[in-house]
Amino acid sequence: MPPKKTAKSEATQSHILATALELFQTHGFDKTTMRMIASEAGMSLGAAYYYFRTKDELVLHFYAHTGAEARDHNWEIVAASKDFQQRMAALIEFKLAQMAPFRALTTVLARHAADWSHPLSPFSPNTKPVRDEAIALIEQALEGSNLKANAVIRPHLARILWLYQMGVILFWVNDASANQQRTRELISVSLGLIQKLIQATALPFMGGISQAAARIVELATSAAPAAEDGR
Hints:
Elements: H1 7-27, H2 34-41, H3 45-51, H4 55-80, H5 84-99, H6 103-110, H7 128-142, H8 157-173, H9 181-200, H10 207-221
Helix pairs in contact: 1-2, 2-3, 4-5, 4-7, 5-7, 5-9, 7-8
């Protein structure tokens, strides 16, 4: 049973998480043990287990924490501009800025992305709440923007763009350029192309292509039960 949420318990959870993240960065995720985390946090292993039973739970808590930060910041992104490219770029840049201090950990976690059954995969049942929230933030960025799209594909756009964001993150964790400058160039160039392609779906003769694209998204998201979330 998880501890009751009180100011003290939340402070303890934050302390354990901060300790774990530092150890993950220093020693690597695989080599860091719960015993090491408890010892560094100044508590017994049993006390640490009371808050987090596994390292996976710590990472899921990290996901939830960064998701909450992104949710709070997203309103500023939406209010700053109606331009689709600016909104999406700002949303992705904020996510990369959140992960930058933990890039080594993110690189390890990215290895689990292809295994949808792994608890830490962004496509797993365990990460569904975080995934849904991330897609909802993209939907907020789409609403009221200057992006025009075919009515058939519009309901799927947030999910498509979330997959695009996942691709950018995968590129980012492997980007060896100074300050990951190639990632910034990729975002700038690709968002311009994406906007043109999406707006082209609004043309009358693109109806068939839009329907095919929507069907592809439906098939992809139903490929495994873990990825199906009713959107």
